[in-house]
Amino acid sequence: MAKIGLTYWKDRIGGEFEKEIVEAFSYGFTVGPHGEWEMVIAKEDREVKKNELINIRIDEIEVPPKSIVLPCPIMRHACGIIASFATAGRPRKVEGPRILEEALFHPVVDGMIHKGELLGVANIFYAAIERRLARGAAEKWLHERYRY
Q1: N or C: at which end does the chain have fewer Cβ atoms within 10 angstroms?
Q2: SS3 sequence of 52-84
Q3: What is the DSSP letter of 28?
Q4: Per-residue pLDDT for 57 more than 90?
Q5: What span, in angstroms and rounded, lies between the C-alpha atoms of 140 and 35?
Q6: 44, 62, 98, 105 from 101: Cα distances, Å
């Protein structure tokens, strides 16, 4: 278990930073045979410039508990691709539900994104946490109980 620093946007992307120290540990996961595709739709008009990453507000996408999200690498909009997704506020654990509110878009040409246009697709994969999580949790519990 390690103490790590979290730095995130407090209320909006590009707004004020928030920082905190938390205890965390690495664990593995297994991706199951089922998943979902969610359309990533622009919620605003934005002008884009070639090779200048930009965050674009999107229609909210609900991410179910115990799932991971990856942007589909196939280009769906003529202006570029989705590099990642973002949400303001404290990072949430994978065990709980999450909401995606913005896409980080990487334009390959100058152009215009219009509200309602398809930017890309989100791959949502259901995952099972591996036993290393339980071992890590047990080690933490034992350490807390028998540290004196």
Answers
A1: C
A2: CCEEEEEEEEEECCCEEEEECCCCCECCEEEEE
A3: -
A4: yes
A5: 32
A6: 12, 9, 10, 13
CB atoms within 10 A of CB 85: 21
The identity of residue 70, as a single letter, is L
- From residue 144, alpha-carbon distances to 22, 40, 47, 134, 135 in Å are 16, 44, 53, 15, 14
The answer to whether the CB of 113 falls within 8 A of the CB of 56 is yes
Rg (CA), the chain: 18
Of the candidates 86, 87, 91, 69, which has an alpha carbon nearest to the alpha carbon of residue 22?
A: 91
Look at 78 and 26; give whichever has higher pLDDT: 78
Confidence of residue 26 (pLDDT cuts 50, 70, 90): confident
Least trusted range by pLDDT, from 30-39, 59-68, 134-143: 134-143
- Average pLDDT of the residues of the chain: 88
What pLDDT score does 102 carry?
95
What are the C-alpha distances in Å from 45 to residues 11, 34, 38, 42?
A: 21, 34, 20, 7
The model's pTM is: 0.79
Token digits for 34?
A: 């089922």
| Nearest CA among 83, 85, 86 for reference residue 106 | 83
